[in-house]
Amino acid sequence: MTSTSSDRRERAVVLTADQVGVLGELATPELRTGHWTRLGEASLLGDRVTEGVLGDVAERVRSAATAEGYSVGWAQGRRDAAAIAADERRQQAVAHAAEETRREGEHVAAVEALSRAADDLRAQLALLADRVERQATDVAWRITEALVGREVAVATGPDVVRRVLAVLPTHPLVRVRLHPELAADPAVRELTDHGVEIVGDPHLGRADALVEADGSVVDLRIDQAMGRVHAALFAPTEVQA
Length: 241
Description:
By secondary structure, the protein is α+β, with helices and mostly antiparallel strands. It has a domain at 157-240: 2-Layer Sandwich (hypothetical protein PF0899 fold), CATH 3.30.2320. The protein has helices at 2-10, 17-24, 48-153, 157-167, 180-183, 189-192, 222-234, 237-240, and strands at residues 175-178, 198-200, 209-213, 216-219. Strand 3 and strand 4 (216-219) form a beta hairpin. Helix 3 (48-153) runs antiparallel to helix 7 (222-234). The longest helix has 106 residues, at 48-153. The radius of gyration is 70 Å and the shape is rod-shaped.
């Protein structure tokens, strides 16, 4: 039993040349470390100087990138703010223009309404003036009719004679036509003293007279005189002018 144990301890393993080569090629663990140098050549891995230089470079790059990013962000922010402000100004300008257009439209509408109201007022005033004028003319005509009617009602022979004498021409007369009752009035004798021929005419009123001389006639009939007054009162304005 003892001999067997010795054989086991003394037994050796003999390796061939190929096996030795394979064992030599087995990777050994890398014990060096480096934050920045691990990204470069293996000979620089863990080099403190290189790590320091690369760390400084990375810090400067990071600072520069941060500054550039801040600058770009600031510029972009300013551009965005300017764009927003410009858009707000455009919106305000559009709103202002719309408000001005609305106000202008309201102003034009108000002016047109006032113009129409003024035209309507002028038309109403013209109608009112015409109505007042017609009423005044009617009143004047009625007053005239009343006054003339009163004068005719109380007219006497001397009144008619005075009217005839007022229109007697200077040349010789032919005749004077009067109402038959008036022709016999004693006051008419004054006309015969002037060489006037008195003719009774039943178609004439008591206050009427027709003075005939050398083919001309002076019409002193009341209704004819009233007709002329009526025509003058009620004639259109342009005709009167």
